Amino acid sequence: MTLVVGACSSVPTGRQILLPDLPKNAEASSPSVREHQRVLSAYGGAYEDPRLHAKLTSIVSRLVAASDRPDLSYKVTILNSPAVNAFALPNGQLYVTRGLLGLANDSAEFASVMAHEMAHVIARHAAIREEQARKTELISNVNDLLGDSQVGAMALARSKIALATFSRSQEFEADAIGVGIAARAGFDPFGASRLLNSMGRNQELRAAGRGGDSRPVEFLSSHPATPERVKNAEDSARQFPASRAHRDKAAYLASIDGMTYGEDPADGFVRGRHFLHPKLGFSFMAPEGFVLDNTAQAVLGAKEAGDQALRLDVVKVPADQSLIEYLNSGWIENIENGSVEELTVNGVPAATATAIGNQWAFRLYVVRFGGAVYRFIFAAKNRTPEADRAFRESIQTFRPLSSQEIRSTKPLRLKIVKVQPGDTVESLSTRMALPLDHPVERFRVLNGLEPDEELKAGDLVKIIVE
What we know:
Layout: H1 31-42, H2 50-66, E1 75-79, E2 86-88, E3 93-97, H3 98-103, H4 107-122, H5 125-134, H6 153-159, H7 168-184, H8 191-209, H9 218-222, H10 227-237, H11 249-256, E4 260-261, E5 269-271, E6 274-277, E7 282-285, E8 290-294, E9 299-303, E10 308-315, H12 323-327, E11 341-345, E12 348-356, E13 361-369, E14 372-380, H13 385-395, E15 399-400, H14 403-408, E16 412-418, H15 425-429, H16 439-446, E17 460-465
Parallel strand pairs: 1-3
Antiparallel strand pairs: 2-3, 4-16, 5-6, 6-7, 7-15, 8-9, 9-10, 10-14, 11-12, 12-13, 13-14, 16-17
Helix pairs in contact: 2-4, 4-7, 4-8, 7-10, 8-10, 8-16
């Protein structure tokens, strides 16, 4: 939960959003600076790793020199987000998440993504996208139910500045241009098709882990990876000599060794049904059967059957305003008469109420903790005593974290290891830091291994460690 939402104010998470250097003549109010700041807000800020940034910048420099527009300037920003995404702004700002960097397995695969985004800029696709975006409302209603209007991931998506879906013809054009740029720069032209395949498999794995949730990773949402598109990338790659197939795997993996993997504890993180936020000092557990998603604006959850959901966010409420008064202040409509009551959750003051919508029934909780108010919205399509009991049991798991728990919470990281004689996919997958579902397939997807591909002694692979 990197951004917090509320009617007028927000609660700091304790982390600093770092802005990469921008052109010295750029004014703070210029559109490019504003869009850059929106991107950072939506994706957890910039991920600072000078060694990794230098490696990526050197790759982009090679791509620029090999492009049809070597006069254009580009700047790479690594976004501190586990999302798998990359995009460009018309001014040459290139963005890539550490989630995508962790999925790539060599410099050629990363180069394919950057070349694709550069192609959009060269072909003025991004400029067209920006012009369309100016016709839309940049700040939209984040949640119709709550009436929130904070700028964040949803506003960024709706503004169509960074995540607009390109047309099919634009995607094919950018693929062809990008493959050509990468190949002329000396990179393996098949890097694009390999990474697209990894993204597709990662999407399938995500769906399996979410009980069939088919939502694509963000890059695939805005850059559809249809089989036809993958084939198009492969056909484009075959036009270049195989002798130029430079992958630069060892150097690339060395550059991401130790990179944060998954959610940053500074933003809170999900472990199964648990959500923990060391910076804000609390944790809670969702009801049985829920799958949680820690987004930029809120913690969202849904039951696999799709008939129950939850949302957790945080707002500042005046200290002299009681929780009962806040529940009745109009931030949510249709609260049922007589349903508002005060309670205590593990020694923390709280209040609850019920509300009725067109298709959902809601159980609301507000909890005052650490100078902020946390809002839990539990929703069910069918109001039943069992569902309400599950919601009440869930809110009772909200608790402060101990000092020891906060100190011991560390981010997961990627570690590059060399395959030893006797190591197998199965044995290395057991070295993952967490008891992940589908561990063998996760290891294969993380390392770009086909379902029947075996490891060889001396290979370099990624594992996830604490």
